[in-house]
Amino acid sequence: MTEKKKTTIVLFSGDYDKAMAAYIIANGAAAYDHEVTIFHTFWGLNALRKDEPIKVEKTFIEKMFGKMMPRGANKMGLSKMNFAGMGPIMIKDIIKKHNAMPLTDLIEMAKEQDIKLVACQMTVDLLGLKQVEIMDGVEFAGVAAYLADAENGNVNLFI
What we know:
Elements: E1 6-11, H1 16-31, E2 35-40, H2 60-68, H3 86-97, H4 103-112, E3 116-120, H5 121-126, E4 139-141, H6 143-150, E5 155-158
Parallel strand pairs: 1-2, 1-5, 2-3, 3-4
Helix pairs in contact: 1-4
């Protein structure tokens, strides 16, 4: 029996288009029967945040980070041509017209394909996020867990 191929992705970026590319690659790899892990760190964690505000105890700095970062995949900006928030609206319209999947649907598809979604515990702590603010179906782990997944990876990407 051949060992399953592995694809790992570190999603560092909080840009909608970069996160979308990461999830397209991840879903494609899973469709080709790869074991896939997406390790979300720093601004990439925004893709995993719940859309609705969650009441939790936070320090002043943690509250400020929470307000400055987009809450959920749908609120993320573009890496280029953001145009004060108009860019994401335009790209989502183009995605819809071309019957492509928006980022939120790509994330759901990833869950359905058993792609391992991991939130970097250290970054969650640094940014003052609480686990209840992160969507269900996400694991919390450190860099050692990612490296264990990536060690035998056939494809390892940093986005």
